[in-house]
Specification:
Length: 167
């Protein structure tokens, strides 16, 4: 029994707002190479509210996932492999996926990241030394929120829209 019963539409709406946050984060990363912290905080708040209105929500799994992702993310960030905004966004999404959803999230993210890297390598070679968007500059970072979005969509394809509750 959920703590608050708001029917089936509200949880679905929360999930779509959360997905919109990840899409917006990817857009910001493409254009500015940064991800606003507010989006990650909103994702966590939405996950908590979702948990309050979802029957059989596994609070332990949905708390351990972001803690684990953040711990690993600190090591990844300290080596310069990912940016801080990417780690915060990924941590916030882990609050949605729970432990059971991390594997599909990471698989989708790895596949999307590989495709993104390949596309940008080709595009950056094609647009080398031409004026244009910074994303095509050889020294521009990889906007990894795009890959995180790909992983989120891959994970979501297993659980949304009809497989409630989430893991």
């Amino acid at each position: 029994m959920p703590i608050i019963d708001l029917g089936p539409i509200v949880p679905m709406a929360l999930a779509f707002v959360a997905l919109a946050c990840v899409i917006i984060a990817a857009g910001w990363d493409i254009t500015r190479f940064e991800i606003p912290d507010e989006l990650s905080l909103l994702l966590v708040a939405l996950a908590v509210f979702y948990g309050l209105i979802t029957p059989n929500f596994n609070w332990l799994w949905h708390a351990l996932a972001p803690v684990g992702v953040f711990a690993i993310g600190l090591a990844v960030f300290s080596r310069g492999w990912m940016g801080g905004g990417d780690i915060k966004l990924l941590t916030a999404i882990a609050a949605w996926t729970g432990l059971g959803g991390l594997l599909p999230l990471f698989i989708g993210m790895a596949l999307s990241g590989g495709i993104l890297a390949f596309v940008l390598i080709v595009a950056r070679r094609a647009y080398a030394d031409r004026p244009g968007p910074r994303i095509f500059a050889r020294d521009a970072p990889l906007p990894y929120a795009v890959a995180i979005l790909g992983g989120t969509l891959y994970w979501a394809s297993f659980v949304w829209p009809g497989n409630w509750p989430l893991y």
